[in-house]
């Protein structure tokens, strides 16, 4: 699988900029493009309303460029992310489980934690959103459910999450993490793709950027999942 991560600043009325990013990612032979949290509306209070035409646009963009898309939008009172396959089929929707700060909690309802797992380019992929990935239980849960890749739209202002936490989260679960952040103050950029050995395959700076990296199933990694002893963790 070849993953593209688009770091950019929303909002993006009519998904016009996303269409250009999808064309660029497809030209780089990417199989999937991950975009930032609430990119269509822009992130921040007061949060923009849902765009009822966005899903249709995403389907058209994915099919036109033969690339899967992960795009975050407000939907049904929740912060969500949809996965659209390269044929334009909507493969699923995930609702953010862990809301960040009083603004999000005032504006949105949290999801119930139901995971979203889809097959893309021969790998099992999970989708979570921003603050979710900072909880070890979330990534461990989808890894135990078979995820090999975790795709994460985000809107983050703390670079330590991207530089310290995410490589460790990838390594401890043997998964690749593709993390697409917004950029421009107050956001920190620093989007990245981290491999299952914790190695950073690509990292963005603080401006708009498209990252591309190849993902595979490396051998010789410590299998933390197989070595677990959950019967001893009950305390």
Automatic annotation (TrEMBL):
<dbReference type="InterPro" id="IPR036526">
    <property type="entry name" value="C-N_Hydrolase_sf"/>
</dbReference>
<protein>
    <submittedName>
        <fullName>Nitrilase-related carbon-nitrogen hydrolase</fullName>
    </submittedName>
</protein>
<feature type="domain" description="CN hydrolase">
    <location>
        <begin position="1"/>
        <end position="217"/>
    </location>
</feature>
<keyword id="KW-0378">Hydrolase</keyword>
<dbReference type="InterPro" id="IPR050345">
    <property type="entry name" value="Aliph_Amidase/BUP"/>
</dbReference>
<dbReference type="InterPro" id="IPR003010">
    <property type="entry name" value="C-N_Hydrolase"/>
</dbReference>
<dbReference type="Pfam" id="PF00795">
    <property type="entry name" value="CN_hydrolase"/>
</dbReference>
<dbReference type="GO" id="GO:0016787">
    <property type="term" value="F:hydrolase activity"/>
</dbReference>
């Amino acid at each position: 699988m070849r993953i593209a991560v688009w770091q950019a600043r929303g909002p993006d009325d009519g998904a016009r900029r996303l269409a250009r990013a999808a064309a660029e990612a497809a030209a780089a032979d990417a199989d999937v493009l991950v975009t930032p949290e609430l990119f269509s509306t822009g992130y921040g209070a007061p949060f923009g309303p849902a765009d009822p035409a966005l899903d249709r646009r995403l389907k058209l963009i994915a099919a036109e460029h033969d690339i899967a898309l992960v795009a975050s939008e407000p939907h049904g009172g929740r912060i969500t992310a949809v996965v659209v396959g390269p044929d334009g089929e909507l493969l699923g929707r995930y609702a953010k489980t862990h809301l960040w700060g009083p603004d999000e909690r005032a504006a949105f309802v949290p999801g119930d934690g139901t995971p979203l797992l889809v097959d893309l380019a021969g790998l099992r992929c999970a989708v979570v959103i921003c603050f979710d990935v900072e909880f070890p239980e979330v990534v461990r849960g989808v890894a135990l459910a078979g995820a090999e890749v975790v795709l994460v739209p985000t809107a983050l202002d703390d670079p330590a999450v991207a530089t310290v936490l995410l490589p460790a989260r990838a390594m401890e679960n043997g998964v690749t993490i593709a993390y697409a952040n917004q950029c421009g103050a107050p956001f920190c950029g620093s989007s990245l793709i981290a491999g299952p050995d914790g190695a950073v395959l690509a990292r963005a700076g603080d401006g708009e950027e498209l990252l591309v990296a190849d993902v595979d199933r490396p051998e010789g990694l410590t299998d933390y999942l197989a070595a677990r002893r959950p019967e001893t963790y009950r305390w």
